[in-house]
Amino acid sequence: MAFGFTVLLLVGGIGALAFLITRLFGGHDHTAAVVWIAGLGFVFVLPALGVVLAVRAFGRIAAPLADVMSAADSVASGDLSVRVRERRGAFDRLARSFNRMVGELERAEQLRKNLTADVAHELRTPLQIVQGNLEGIIDGV
Fold this sequence. Notes:
Strand content: under 5%
Low-confidence stretches: none
Shape: rod-shaped
Oligomer: single chain
Order of helices and strands: HHH
């Protein structure tokens, strides 16, 4: 919708500009009017088009990087459940690598928790036996 409206404005504007420039040259010299329109197009339209294309290209680059940076901040604060949306293109590999890295960190954290629980359980039983034996010695059993 916006593109069609822009094209309509551009075509209508060129037509109005052609009419005004033709009138400026007395209505007879159409070649001069076309040269003026082409010159104005090069002076105004092409730089504006370049700016629009540069802004769009910057947005396509900046958005995936912003997603990865935000996810990295979340991981740094301890949230290992965050994932980056994988997009098509050059940043797809970055997103997959980031997601794989966070998955490995999540698995390592789970293994660490399991190891701590297992060590605590395995040490508790022998310590209880030693404690029972010491209490028996103290009681004179």
